[in-house]
Amino acid sequence: MAQKLVQSQSLQQIQTLSPQQVLQVRLLEMPVSELEQRVKNELIDNGALEERLGNDEEDHLQDSGDSYDEESRETDDASDSDGGLPPDEFRPAEVRQAMDDYRSVDDVPDYLLQDRGGKDRPESLEYGDTTSFYEQMTEQMNECDLTPRQKELMTYLIGSLESDGLLKKKLSTLADELEIYNGVQTSAEELQTVLAKLQTFDPPGIGARDLRECLLLQIRRDENFHTRLKKQEYEIIDKLFDEFTHKRWDRIRQKLHLSEAEAERLQKDLRRLNPRPGSAMGEVLGHNYQQIVPDLVVTTEDDGSVTLSLNKGDVPDLHISPSFMELMSQADSGRSKLSRSEREALQYTKQKIEKAKGFIEAVKQRRRTLTAVMQAIVDLQRPFFVEGDETLLRPMILKDVAGRTGLDISTVSRAANSKYVETNYGTYPLKWFFSDGYVTDDGQEIATRKIQAALKECIEAEDKKKPLSDEVLTAMLNEKGFPIARRTVAKYREQLGIPVARLRK
């Protein structure tokens, strides 16, 4: 059968996102710390976008067209803590005096206009050591009597340690990496010699290649290693490690001929060993420092009132450059007399202005969306924000917030992703407030988190010598008014990171 070309028409509906919508989505997904950097990059790339330094003669140029300045601050509490430059009364006296010597804001050096970290500056929560794990290990290395080559090899070994302080790469692999990336020829045997010196550093267990070696190093470094108890601990880890990891203490007692009291004492002593020695010093370089800046702040007063504010961070107030707006005004008045190059320059200026307007609107839209989503969460979870008891959290899913705000579920998901809220009771990720519910036979809806809290309470109160099985836990929860099945108990137990009964001994 001969083939022929056929042309036909069809009508389809295809949903596509405009560049402005894509920008709004991307800014919404960013936490405030990333937004700060994004705004800085945009200020560098787009000359039509500027920081607003204060109320001056520039404002009348901005008001001549569409208003793209920052949202006015009379509508909600979110804008009260939206950042920007601090008012003059919050600047130090010497700074205000120095600024008086200049005729206008444009003449004032940038360092005098910068925020000095007054009482209204958004608070950031910083976690981490001032000295990194890498630096602490390097300090110990410099105190050792090593040759320059040994120091070079040990520096690479320290940099290859995981965040838990263990060395999980094979020495042969590290030898290949040294030759390829550093041009240093070495062998696994030479690295083993240097690693042995590294394993003498503090805390004990650093540089171990697996959990077994980590525990053995800690036992050997103990000042009481010569005692019978430590010798038995060493033998358990060295020869009966599989039984130890699976908590088969009945077999260990039989093989070592231990009494019940001796086995219990050994268990208690072995629990004191640290399987992650690096965690005592902070994580390795590049991971030891984590800064969490809450995007939102919820404050609960003594009278039970709840106030929501949006943390703008170091994102400045933005507006269109007056020089660009003036250039557009002059060009429009004499458009017929413009040359080709001047028309191209005018088109370039217009594109930059439109892009700046779109970016400002996207930042404003991000604030409106975050505020709306968080306000809905506060309304739905008000008992928690008043009392601070997590068992008071009601079942809430993305659909509930979307229904209150009129936003799409995907928009709510993006708003909650990677965002934190600071409350009177701590700082929480927004996703923490979302949880499924369990509906009982009589139609009562119980939050999953409340059931998990009850399960955790039962396990914490159990006899550690005879831990409760999932069947017993199911019966106990049913008596407490949580009619759930055994498989549900097992699922919640796994979500809480709690092992089975045999491994809880």
What does this structure look like?
This protein has 22 helices and ten strands. It has 505 residues and is of the alpha+beta class. It has a four-stranded mixed β-sheet. A hairpin with a 5-residue loop joins β9 (437-439) and β10 (445-447). α6 packs antiparallel against α7, α7 (148-159) packs across α9 (188-198) and α18 (398-405) crosses α19 (409-416). The chain is extended and about 100 Å long.
Task: Offer a concise description of the structure.
The protein has 505 residues and is of the alpha+beta class.
Largest sheet: 4 strands, mixed
Could you tell me the radius of gyration in angstroms?
Answer: 32 Å
Query: Overall 3D geometry?
Result: extended
User: Termini distance?
Assistant: 77 Å
What is the helix fraction of residues, given as a range? Answer: 40-55%
Oligomeric state = single chain
The chain-level mean pLDDT equals: 77
Neighbour order of strands in the largest sheet: 5-4-7-8
Strand content: 5-15%
Number of helices: 22
Descriptive key words:
alpha+beta; two-stranded antiparallel sheet; extended; 10 strands; 4-stranded mixed β-sheet
SSE topology sketch:
Elements: H1 19-29, H2 32-45, E1 49-51, H3 59-62, H4 93-99, H5 110-113, E2 125-128, H6 133-142, H7 148-159, H8 171-181, H9 188-198, H10 211-221, H11 228-239, H12 241-245, H13 249-256, H14 260-270, E3 289-292, E4 296-300, E5 306-310, E6 318-320, H15 322-333, H16 340-380, H17 382-387, H18 398-405, H19 409-416, E7 420-423, E8 426-429, E9 437-439, E10 445-447, H20 448-460, H21 470-479, H22 486-495
Parallel strand pairs: 4-7
Antiparallel strand pairs: 1-6, 2-3, 4-5, 7-8, 9-10
